[in-house]
């Protein structure tokens, strides 16, 4: 068993947060040389390099990012057990940190209520909803326990684990006129104005991978699905929109799907590090692993 002191774990977590040895040493109330020795002692005991000291500000190595999750879990479990033995939080709940893309948080998480809000787990949830790439970075940086997001190549391999949750689709849609007919006709007009996603956005990259194109006449581009949806509803052009974001508009007839373009699939997953998490997180992961893929996320 490794001879690791809990203060080293706390030192490491503070350093990971502040990204500066001097500032972290001040917070931990020790001299910088002493603080640096404690971090080196932790690395030596683990046999791992946790800190990339060549960067300014310093950064965690890949091993460091993985170990950050482990260190947080260990500290949480020690604190909770001490509190339980002291009788101060026998009924206390562990907070499970979830990161999610905005649209996924709205469309998917409520469908998983039996797993996420299982009273037997005695947990509370902290949900951080962001743009897709920002949500992914929270997991990579060890700032969340689970990430609910779309397919990501880099998260499909070690040091990450994933569970497939279901499939959604991007549909090419148009607003309609007073008679309920689409404002734009791709079958007879190759120059229809289109509202596109920026190339660096997740949706933009997904459409590029699928070689899905609209027309050469791009009148506006954005990374925000809701913004593009608003412009489509105003009749400014056509665009790709995810089914879960336009369920009501399709049902009411405000939007119609242009069948000249094949829908683009979007697979959704929950991701985590391989590192062992708090027992409450592991129990939740076990429940999620039992869920059958949701076939219609917009249903």
What can you tell me about this protein's structure?
It is a single chain. This protein has 299 residues and is α/β, with parallel strands linked by helices. It has three domains: 6-82, Orthogonal Bundle (Arc Repressor Mutant, subunit A), CATH 1.10.10.10; 91-166 and 267-290, Periplasmic binding protein-like II (D-Maltodextrin-Binding Protein, domain 2, 3-Layer(aba) Sandwich); 167-266, Periplasmic binding protein-like II (D-Maltodextrin-Binding Protein, domain 2, 3-Layer(aba) Sandwich). The protein is built from eleven helices and eleven strands. The chain has helices at 6-18, 21-27, 32-46, 62-85, 102-107, 113-116, 132-140, 202-209, 225-233, 247-252, 279-289; strands at residues 51-52, 59-60, 94-101, 123-130, 146-150, 160-175, 194-197, 218-222, 239-242, 255-257, 264-273. The strands form three sheets. Strands 3, 4, 5, 6, 9, 10 and 11 form a seven-stranded mixed beta sheet that branches. β1 (51-52) and β2 form a beta hairpin. α1 crosses α4 (62-85) and α2 crosses α3. The termini are far apart.
């Amino acid at each position: 068993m490794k001879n690791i002191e809990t203060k080293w774990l706390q030192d490491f977590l503070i350093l990971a947060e502040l990204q500066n040895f001097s500032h972290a040493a001040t917070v931990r109330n020790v001299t910088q040389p002493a603080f640096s020795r404690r971090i080196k002692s932790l690395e030596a005991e683990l046999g791992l390099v946790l800190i990339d000291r060549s960067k300014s500000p310093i950064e965690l190595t890949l091993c460091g990012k993985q170990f950050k999750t482990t260190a947080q879990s260990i500290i949480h479990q020690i604190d909770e057990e001490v509190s339980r033995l002291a009788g101060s939080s026998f009924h206390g709940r562990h907070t499970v940190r979830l990161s999610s893309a905005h649209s996924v948080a709205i469309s998917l998480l409520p469908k998983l209520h039996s797993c996420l809000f299982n009273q037997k787990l005695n947990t509370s949830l902290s949900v951080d909803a962001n743009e897709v790439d920002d949500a992914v970075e929270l997991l990579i940086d060890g700032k969340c326990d689970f990430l609910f997001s779309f397919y990501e190549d880099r998260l499909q391999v070690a040091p990450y684990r994933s569970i497939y949750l279901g499939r959604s689709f991007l549909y090419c849609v148009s607003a309609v006129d007073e008679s309920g007919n689409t404002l734009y006709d791709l079958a007879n007009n190759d120059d229809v104005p289109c509202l596109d996603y920026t190339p660096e956005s997740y949706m933009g990259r997904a459409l590029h991978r699928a070689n899905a194109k609209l027309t050469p006449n791009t009148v506006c581009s954005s990374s925000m699905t809701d913004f593009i949806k608003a412009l489509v509803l105003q009749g400014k052009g056509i665009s790709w929109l995810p089914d879960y974001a336009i369920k009501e508009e399709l049902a009411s007839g405000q939007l119609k799907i242009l069948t000249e373009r094949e829908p683009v699939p979007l697979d959704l997953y929950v991701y985590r590090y391989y590192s062992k998490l708090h027992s409450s997180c592991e129990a939740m992961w076990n429940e999620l692993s039992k869920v059958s893929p949701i076939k219609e996320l917009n249903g």
